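Thread: Modeling a multi-component assembly for a lab meeting

Hi all, long-time lurker, first post. My supervisor asked me to bring a structural picture of a complex we are working on to next week's group meeting, and I have zero experience with this. I have the sequence lines for every component (1159 residues in total). Could someone generate the structure of the whole assembly? Inputs are pasted exactly as I received them:
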Amino acid sequence: MLHGFDILSLLIWLPVGGGVAVLAIGDTRARLARWVALLVALATFVLCVPLWLEFDTTTAAFQYLERLSWINQLHADYYLGVDGISLPLIVLTAFMTVPVIIAGWSVVEKRPAQYYAAFLILEGLMIGVFSALDALLFYFFWEAMLIPMFLIIGIWGGPRRVYATLKFFLYTFLGSVLMLVALIFLYLKAGDYTIAGFQSLPLTLAEQRWIFLAFLVAFAVKVPMWPVHTWLPDAHVEAPTGGSVILAAIMLKMGGYGLLRFSLPITPDASRELDWLVIGLSLIAVVYIGFVALMQSDMKKLIAYSSVAHMGFVTLGAFLAFDIQGSTGALRGAINGLDGAMVQMISHGLISGALFLCIGVMYDRLHSREISAYGGVINVMPKFGAFMVLFALANSGLPGTSGFVGEFLVILAAFKANVWFAFLAATTLILGAAYTLWLVKRVIFGPIANDHVAAMQDLNGREFLVLAMLAVAVLALGLWPAPLVRTMEATVQHLLQQLAVSKIPVA
Amino acid sequence: MNANLLLAIPMLPLAAAIIAGLGGRVLGRAVSAGLAIAAVAASCLLSMQVLNQLLHGTANYNASVYTWLLSDGVNMQVGFLIDRLSALMMVVVTFVSLCVHVYTVGYMHDDAGFQRFFAYIALFTFAMLMLVMSNNFLQLFFGWEAVGVVSYLLIGFWYTRPSAIFANLKAFLVNRVGDFGFLLGIAGVLYYTGSLDYQVAFNWAPAIAKQTLHVAGTAAGWPAMTVICICLFVGAMGKSAQVPLHVWLPDSMEGPTPISALIHAATMVTAGIFMVARMSPLFEQSETALSFVLVIGATTALFMGFLGIVNNDIKRVVAYSTLSQLGYMTVALGVSAYSVAIFHLMTHAFFKALLFLAAGAVIIAMHHEQDMRKMGGLRVRMPVTYWTSLIGALALIGTPFFSGFYSKDALIEAVHASHRWGAGYAYVCVTAGVFVTAFYTFRMIFMTFHGPSRLDHHAEEHFHDVGWDMKGPLVALAIPSLLIGYFTIQPVLFGGYFGDAIRVLESNDVVAEIGREFHGAAVFALHAVLSLPLWLAAAGVYCAWHFVLRRPDQATAIQARFNWLYRLLVNKYYFDWFNENVLARAARGLGLALWRGGDQAVIDGVLVDGSAGAVGWIAGRVRRIQNGFLYSYAFWMIVSLVLILGWFLVRV
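Re: Modeling a multi-component assembly
Sure thing. I ran the full set together rather than chain by chain. Output:
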């Protein structure tokens, strides 16, 4: 509740309702549909301002609570609230939807109203995922948000969209089913579905292990972690620009959020026992995927692989606490890793979103994602070139941009856990720069490659606005990340306490 | 010291960079350039004012500007540490930058990217100032990476040239290899001290030296300080182009000449030297790391000098000279003569920037011709450039009374006095390097300015001496190149100038040792007549004269006779060949193998499509059971019943 009104419900149902309204306006009145969609997206983002400002950073407790009885028979409630981990992700969701709506403005000609409606509904459902405090409600939003995403890829996607959608669906479905089994098991033990109840529930190590693995599959697919990442490049390649942006910027964060909200606090002992698995897969993601990204000839695939490598820092940072305790005997430094994981999620949302928008700008002009189709774009599109270079440098982790903050914190924490973790993680400095700047060299710099490139027009005002919004955010977060980290501080400390305490019942 | 005044020093160039960069098209050339020059001039004056205050007893300044991030009790800040070391660097950086700004007006006047260029060099000045003014490792890394990015943008300034965009990518990636080590070193500092603040780290240094780093997988630990210092130095090897991370610097000459002078000679490439000097309290605690520094530096000093001899591109000769001189500075660091390294950094900044700008003037006069074989006899046609170049060259080879003499001779003396492991090798390298330096330097002077004119028709037709906007900075740099050594050696090296900005253990203090025999700058110079380096330098000049002007045929003969050696040098010891054909190819091969083999064949092929296939196959089999025949169902019912009952029986 914020000043007596249910702000979280509003944040969820305003875009969903707006989406339904846009649908009702219909494709024949596309102009009106666009403006309504933009207004709804803007209003949702504006609602985040008081949400952020009134948020009490001194407590780890959930805030803006709303609770209604939902399914009595299952003891499931419509129970919402946010803490320092979910708040930044909600703001990110609301923020990123705005450029997506603007970017589609004159580009999407096929069923425009439905396109905007899908994104608005998706926005509401994603905010629902981040604010649900009831596991069944969480699961409801988690599964429901897949529907608009399937439609976005399936209707506005590329030629192999059916294969991509199917792969996406199978992967996430497999993960979700296992998560549902784990949630039902927890419900049977706890008696209701509140996540906080799950977190305080004593569980034997064997129980924790199974639950941990079930959660891990579900979240690893979403992140995605190696080796369950191969759906992502295919999905990105086939998705329309806006779909790629939301997929990379927000949907991947669901996995990281799940690890922080479910895996670590609900199964701390299993996390401690099996952290090597997550750390190992994360480091493989950073190094292995770094090399794979180097060899991509499709720009979207390259950025998709880059996402996998960058999300490796999220999963790595989240699971360093146990090894830090093991090697130094104390937990000091573990928060660096958790903070790093969170900042990396926000930053990656901004940067990968921006890069997909940049690729979209080029695709709209040349209808190709192949690197070899381009060359010397900066000659004809100097403004665009400047943005692209900025975001590429941010993607390479340049200090002063948001891309640096998370990776820096995670590497600092990794050094405490094990020098070799830091060593492998830090290879991203070389690999990330190699694949990103090699892309820039081939696409942006150089002489004008062909007549098609020569005919490209520089950014129009709308495109400029979109990229400028993201550039400001990337720089602001890079130059002054303190406010974001302060917002999360109490929650992250609470999380650390949760995972430091064993949940195994004393016999 | 006034905090706002200090803040203004880096912020003025930043503001100019932003205005010229975003509004350059609207403001026009004159306003953009004027703004940048005014901002850097103001920074330069303020820096001098700061240095002046410090010289007159004002206490050091050490405070934060704002908290960048607070995580787990680690306070990561942006803040300034202004002592005599940083103040000296600030003056050098802003003064050379100012000269380069003014020079650029003439050099770039017909370039379409004029405003963009000013935005970049002003931005560079900002980043470099943040680097040297920092009081903590975080901001150091910020500045470190930021100068790297501006260098990347400037090497690729003419982005339509394939060679330029190859060079800038190469420069960035090689520097990132260095930064990889640097970041691990910073993580190590945080690990042992819990802080990124310089002062905290320095205070902890003796304690860290007693620690060992237990790396998983090895039974014995590594000395923590050695690991940290070598990691930090790997960063310096990238930025200051030490073997084997030197490969990017010669290629960086693809950028416009003013930035070769500013970034790739005078300032950015010396950031590594500055950093190690700044970290002297840490490096002093590890003999191993210092020996490592010493050997790397000595190797760079001598072997990169050789490459200058075989090059015919005027800028590349100066670039190899820069590599070699950076090696000299690194050697000084390696023998704990940090103050000598900074002293040589300062004199080198002036005379090397001068030589680069003079080379740029020649290139412009020759209408973008860089091949020295097509020059010759320019002495008469460009007198100011000739005389200033000569001053720069004499300073570089260490002629007594010139600035370079003082720093280089003190450096060689310091190496001679050192007993550290590797000092003997280093002494041979730096002494032999004197001959090599003199040889390639005067080979360049003779080929360019002396002898008969070899200008081709095109160059002859377009030849025009440069204007005073370019000659002025040459003169401005020639003055310190000539004089600064004479006037500053006593206070900087032996007068305790650096105070506690540089800390040397008493047992390592070679500078104090040579200081005991120092009796004034004039005596020092006269004394050199009796020492080996001066005669080696003279021999180098003589050889250059002999082979370039007197008997060029002999040079050709020697080249033919020792063709294998010539090929080795022309191919730059095959470093580039190795990097491109082995390392880069291996990385691409690995990427392709992991993608096609790992992702596509195993994960998608076997696991994903395979499990889909398996499901399909099983479904196909299972489907046959449901064939619609009653007897079949009855049969399977009986079989199942038997199995279930059997199972119960076994259990009971």
